[in-house]
Amino acid sequence: MKETPRFDLPPALSTLAERHDWIYSFIFWVSVVLFVAITGAVVWFALRYRRSHHPKAVPTPHNMALELTWTFTPLLLLAFLFYKGMEGFLFGMVAPEDAVEIRATARQWKWTFHYPGGAESFDELIVPEGKPVKIVLYSEDVVHSFYIPEFRVKRDAVPGMYTTVWFQAKEQGEANLFCAEYCGAPDPKPGEEASNRGHSAMLATVKIVSQEKFQAFLEEGAKGGIPAKCKNAPNPEACWGLQIVKNQGCLTCHSTTGERIVGPTWKGLWGKKRTFSDGSSAVADENYIRESIVQPAAKIVQGYPPGMSPFSLKDEQIAAIIAYMKTLK
Ligand code: CUA
Q1: How far apart are CA 219 and CA 14, in angstroms?
Q2: What average pLDDT score do residues 201-212 get?
Q3: What are the tens digits of pLDDT across the range 136-152?
Q4: 45 by DSSP, 3-state: which?
Q5: How far is 275 from 282, CA to CA, in rounded Å?
Q6: What is the model's pLDDT at position 192?
Q7: Is 199 a pocket residue for ligand 1 (Cβ < 6 Å)?
Q8: pLDDT of residue 3
Q9: 282: alpha, beta or left, given left = phi > 0 and alpha = psi -120 to 50?
Q10: Enclosing H/E stretch for 120
Q11: From the alpha carbon of 106, which atom of ligand 1 is closest?
Q12: Å from CA of 255 to ligand 1 middle
């Protein structure tokens, strides 16, 4: 059942969102009522007791009933708000035991998702509808923040520690994952305005699918190897390599067209002689590319900043990337 979207909030697609929106609306409407009542009273008093009618002030005696009313009414209201807030906070903090656990890893400037059984995804976070999902967050570099407005969840991903967040999606559909903590951007090219890459492009789509589809996705991913959509490609391994580099976010910093972005381009890289910042050189072969992926700081190409963090990929994934690079003549 689709609900009519609210004018003031994104669609509510998780069970937490209902609680969240209820207390939000409650506070909003209490504020509206109090605003109107208090402003109305101020205006009414100002008119009723204006100087032309009441030139002489009359002292007001102590009024016990009034004192108690304006002490205990806000106290009860605040106690109620605290109770509802705490209840919602605890609900959002403690994931149910049967939650599906997905690891979300942040790095500049990409989200990576690891599912039970070994499936992985990158630009998309796949979650089942009607089942609790616990996200275990980690950052490989700086502080990022995992934010899905439609689920009303936001939590920092911090290097050196795990943080968690959970939600249960109510219906199939799509939501947006943002990075909500400024995490830098690549240096703009000379003569270019500050770029919209980096933090502001650190997005992913959340796909809420049926439980059967989610199960099928896990099973497909657990098999590993060349994905189905590359099996019939003219060069299946290179096709898979392209998927991997897209998914890993390599192309954020490395072009395949010869253009300089952050790191060296991959066009014509294979078999070429590379000169490094320490003056040494090597030919770009399997060993060089493998090393550049798993231990990027080992050799820095002359004229480029060091700054890539290591990627941990399986051997067959690295082989697929190499197969792809060979096609970039
Ligand atoms: Cu990652 Cu902002």
Answers
A1: 25
A2: 91
A3: 999 988 999 999 999 99
A4: helix
A5: 7
A6: 66
A7: yes
A8: 58
A9: beta
A10: strand 120-121
A11: 1
A12: 21
Using the mean position of ligand 1's atoms as its centre, give its distance from the Cα of residue 302 in Å: 28
Distance 25 CA to ligand 1 centre (A): 30
Q: How far apart are the C-alpha atoms of 206 and 126, rounded to whole Å? A: 6
Q: Tell whether pTM > 0.85.
A: no
Q: Are 182 and 199 in contact (CB under 8 A)?
A: yes
CA of 183, closest atom in ligand 1: 2
For the Cβ of 184 lying below 6 angstroms from any atom of ligand 1, the answer is: no
Distance CA 281, CA 264 (A): 15
Average pLDDT over residues 26-53: 93
For the Cβ of 35 lying below 6 angstroms from any atom of ligand 1, the answer is no
On average, the pLDDT of the chain sits at 87
- Does ligand 1 come within 6 angstroms of the Cβ of 206? no
Is the Cβ–Cβ distance between 300 and 288 less than 8 Å?
no
Q: What are 132's strand-pairing partners?
A: 168
The residue assigned the tokens 């939590």 is: 155
Q: Give the three-class secondary structure for 49.
A: coil
Residues 76-102: b if buried by 16+ CB within 10 A, e if exposed: eeeeeeeeeeeebeeebeebeeebbeb
Helix (H) or strand (E) holding 204: strand 204-209
Q: How confident is the model at residue 193 (pLDDT cuts 50, 70, 90)?
A: low
Give yes or no for residue 104 CB within 6 A of ligand 1: no
Share of the chain above pLDDT 90, in %: 36
Which residue's CA is the nearest one to ligand 1's atom 1?
Answer: 144
Residue 71 has pLDDT above 90, yes or no: yes
